[in-house]
Amino acid sequence: MAWSQDEERMLAQIEQHLVDEDPRLVSRLESFNERVRRSEVRDKGEPAVRRRPRRSTVIIMVSWLLIATLVATLLILVLRHEAAAALALTL
Questions:
Q1: Predicted pLDDT of residue 1
Q2: How would DSSP label each residue in 38-64?
Q3: CA-CA distance, 46 to 39, in Å (whole number)?
Q4: What would the mean pLDDT of 73-83 be, rounded to a whole number?
Q5: Among 26, 30, 52, 75, which residue has the fewest nearby CB atoms (within 10 Å)?
Q6: What is the pLDDT of residues 14-61, one digit of tens each?
Q7: Residue 25, C-beta contacts closer than 8 angstroms, at least 6 positions apart
């Protein structure tokens, strides 16, 4: 059912009034609409737009990688040292 020109004009006036009165509300609604659009795209099975990971996610991933590398290096050093000490005792 199509709206009449008067109804469309009244809706446009209400929208403009809301934009003028509360810009935070407008930004929240735009954010909400974007999330709804992404959800609808995901539900339809279409490939979603690939987003870059957040900076904090990248920092956490790099930190875990460095920690894992450090632990592995320390284990290798300890095991080599124990092996060398055991070899020295047998000689």
A1: 63
A2: HHHHHHHTPPPPPPPPPHHHHHHHHHH
A3: 10
A4: 90
A5: 52
A6: 888 888 888 888 888 888 888 888 888 777 765 656 778 888 999 999
A7: 18
